Every structure is written in structure tokens, then in C-alpha cells.
From TrEMBL:
Protein name: GreA/GreB family elongation factor
A GO MF term: translation elongation factor activity
Gene3D superfamilies: Transcription elongation factor, GreA/GreB, C-terminal domain
Keyword Glycoprotein among record annotations: no
Domain Transcription elongation factor GreA/GreB C-terminal: start-end pairs: 81-138
Tagged with keyword Transcription regulation: no
Originating species: Sphingomonas donggukensis
Pfam families (UniProt xref): GreA_GreB
InterPro entries the record matches: GreA/GreB_C_sf, Tscrpt_elong_fac_GreA/B_C, Tscrpt_elong_fac_GreA/B_fam
Length: 157
């Protein structure tokens, strides 16, 4: 039989399993974000311990490595200065005549459905460092955002 038609096992033809990619840059988190990461690790510990299927357990272990790395590299952001937008801020602003309120958080706790955006998002980058009453540039538009109010996010602690 030709060597071309032999294979040792089916694992040779499986797609490679890659690690979960980690975003470049600092891993800034709010205190809430740090708690969420620790809770995710505890959840994964329990799932790994209870998983009988080796393939599923390996997927859980890969996720555990990701969250373990995120916990070990987490840097809790300082509370936002009074009146200034920073990570951990709740910001009320006007864009195109519409008023919105968002919380600026770490990358892993971002959730657009709950108005939590990552500090690395373009909107957050435009707002960070701004103060109440200022207008800031956004999306190639001068003075596109007007900052109406900012406080520490109530769930940032």
C-alpha cells in the first residue's frame, strides 16, 4: 500500500486549535471587571472539574488559560477624576442631536447592549480626557460630541 493512502489516526486531519487571541495593549479594568474575570475563572474551574469529555474539557482549559492571563495582566484603572471622562466613567453626551449615556469600561466587560463600551473603542477614545461642557471631535467631524455630564459609573466599584 502506498504511503499516500495511510494515516496513523484521525487527529492528523483535524483543524488546529488556536488559543483565544488577547487584545494588544494594556489590560485596564474597572473593579467590577476584575470581579467578573475572577468569577469567570471560578465558573471554568467548576466546569472543568465536572466535564467528562476530554475534547470539551480541552476547550474549557483553553478558555481558562485566556481568563487566567487576563486576570494576571489586569490593571485596575484609577477612579475617574471629578468632572473628567476616564475609564470607569458614566458619560452623558450629545451626538447628532441625540442624547446618550454610556459607561466606559475595560475590554472584557464591554457590552454594547447595556451601554458599556471598551476604553479602546473609537467613541470612548474621543471622550476620554474630556470635561463637562466641552465638545470633542469624533468620526472626522469637529465638535461632534458635546459632553453633558460625567460621574463615576455606579457599577464600576
Amino acid at each position: 500500500m502506498s504511503v499516500a493512502f495511510r494515516r496513523e489516526n484521525d487527529d492528523e486531519h483535524l483543524e488546529p486549535k488556536f488559543e483565544v487571541p488577547i487584545a494588544p495593549g494594556p489590560n485596564l479594568v474597572t473593579p467590577r471587571g476584575l470581579r467578573l474575570i475572577a468569577a469567570k475563572l471560578a465558573e471554568l474551574d467548576a466546569a472543568i472539574a465536572g466535564e467528562a469529555d476530554e475534547a470539551a474539557r480541552n476547550v474549557l482549559k483553553r478558555d481558562h488559560r485566556y481568563w487566567g492571563t487576563r486576570l494576571s495582566t489586569a490593571q485596575v484603572a484609577e477612579p475617574p477624576p471629578t468632572g473628567e471622562v476616564a475609564i470607569g466613567s458614566r458619560v452623558k453626551f450629545r451626538l447628532n442631536g441625540k442624547i446618550r449615556t454610556i459607561d466606559i469600561v475595560g475590554g472584557d466587560e464591554a457590552d454594547a447592549a447595556h451601554d458599556r463600551i471598551a476604553f479602546s473603542a473609537p467613541l470612548a477614545r474621543a471622550l476620554i480626557g474630556g470635561e463637562v461642557g466641552e465638545t470633542v471631535d469624533f468620526g472626522d467631524r469637529t465638535d461632534a460630541l458635546e459632553i453633558l455630564a460625567t460621574t463615576a459609573s455606579p457599577d464600576a466599584d
